[in-house]
């Protein structure tokens, strides 16, 4: 694993020598040249090996050399096969490599053909026979039949299930964490831990030094790729992993060991700050009653045991539970703190705010209420999501492992009996005896049993109790204005009142329905948009943020989360502006791609010029 990662990201490592174990399951796009110095018995393995470098993210032309022994019987057979495959590839395209593993030579695998060539290849009639067998196996019509057989879908989903899966994927994409925030956090946290980075290209960095604490932490918590002492390039956006003519970058995102180790160390050193809590101001709330928001961590584990003796965590979520003065609790699906700002120096302090009668309901037992709500409402949803996904994966893995290993066990069982019969007849095989063949069959049987037992453990999914990491008090801007005697700022005054916001949403939902969409009001869920609209013809979702303004207003205020959602789904996000005219009249404007860049890290909301937005708007469609 360390050799693999060094080859991918260490500029000093130029060549990787690997056994057949590197033929599947790893990504080596940094290379574009491959030499097969030991050709496998199964021709499908050639394509699997080549797939390590010829894959998504590769920006060079890939070349493959297969070394075949000249003037040898098995070499002649392999050369003939490769030539026939090239002819089939020209006729059928790259699809031919999808069915290499299913090719049989008169019911026998390639291995038997090569052995026959070694034993009897000096006879002209045998040589001609082998050539004909290969030609028949790689015949165009035969390969076409295999391709059609492979194209048959064995797992069929009905249209409604396909639609649900697509909608869930679109919602998840809209909620994803912007790379901008991962980048900002990592660069600052990594620097605080003693790491060194240098920007080499736009938003691409060289990591010249990874400090020992980060590498050591990865050894404690890591389960996959190791953290390297240095990285030639790292990037935080997929589009920047492999730009043309530039070094391949490690994609640093949640799940990458370098980010995970940095995050774990940072949390360990500053977890007490989370527990201490704080007070934040919600400028969109013109009321006077504070709210309390708790951030909880919830994990789901399987029965696999790590080196540390702990069970393996397979999913972890940050949960946000908000409580109000009436005792109502609700789960917020996004990072709400991004829309709040800290207290200013000239505003009342924490003690003064908590001593107000409006804050009298805030007591120590609120944490338990938040945990109880999470256990009852949120944890089952998280567990079901992970269990369903894991069950589907386990089922496919069981079938694939059993199919592959059972075939190999059957082959070596038959080979052992065949060799034993030859030995009893006084014709022992000098290179392989029946005991060795039997041992291979037994080893494969033990391997199959061990893998099935491991899959059984991975299928045992259970939820851990949620853990409260901390919380904060959300103070409305209206309460700050009341205490200081100062009027609300222009930004706060410009924010929608509940009445105008509800009226604007109702107008836009009616417009969407007339356009043939199925519109759903999501404002209460605080997702970062107000309306989710489904195209009844295609099933695609689009997300609308609604703003209602009196004609002639100066600005429209947009929160950070609303901007992030628009950037995550630029093609499917609409800023719907309802311009209120005299009386009950109104005009509806749709602005597509309303925002061009992420707000700065400390920004909670941005004011946009109302007239400028209207110049970019179009009629609803």
Could you give the topology of this structure?
Elements: H1 2-9, E1 33-36, H2 44-50, E2 63-66, H3 73-92, H4 110-120, H5 124-137, H6 140-151, H7 159-175, H8 179-192, E3 196-201, E4 204-209, H9 212-221, E5 231-235, E6 250-251, H10 257-276, E7 278-282, E8 291-305, E9 311-323, E10 329-332, E11 341-342, H11 350-354, H12 366-424, H13 434-459, E12 462-463, E13 467-476, H14 477-484, H15 490-494, H16 498-514, E14 517-521, E15 531-535, E16 541-550, E17 555-559, H17 560-568, E18 573-580, E19 586-592, E20 605-609, H18 610-615
Parallel strand pairs: 1-2, 5-6, 7-13, 16-18
Antiparallel strand pairs: 3-4, 4-5, 7-11, 8-9, 8-12, 8-13, 9-10, 14-15, 15-16, 17-20, 18-19
Helix pairs in contact: 3-4, 3-5, 9-10, 12-13
Task: Give the gist of this structure.
With 621 residues, the chain is α+β, with helices and mostly antiparallel strands. The protein has 18 helices and 20 strands. The chain has helices spanning 2-9, 44-50, 73-92, 110-120, 124-137, 140-151, 159-175, 179-192, 212-221, 257-276, 350-354, 366-424, 434-459, 477-484, 490-494, 498-514, 560-568, 610-615; strands at 33-36, 63-66, 196-201, 204-209, 231-235, 250-251, 278-282, 291-305, 311-323, 329-332, 341-342, 462-463, 467-476, 517-521, 531-535, 541-550, 555-559, 573-580, 586-592, 605-609.
Verbal overview:
- With 621 residues, the protein is an alpha+beta fold.
- The chain has four domains: 22-147, no CATH class; 179-267, no CATH class; 297-485, no CATH class; 496-615, Trna Endonuclease, Chain: A, domain 1.
- It contains 18 helices and 20 strands.
- The strands form five sheets. Strands 7, 8, 9, 10, 11, 12 and 13 form a seven-stranded mixed β-sheet that branches. It has a five-stranded mixed β-sheet with strand order 14-15-16-18-19, with helices on both faces.
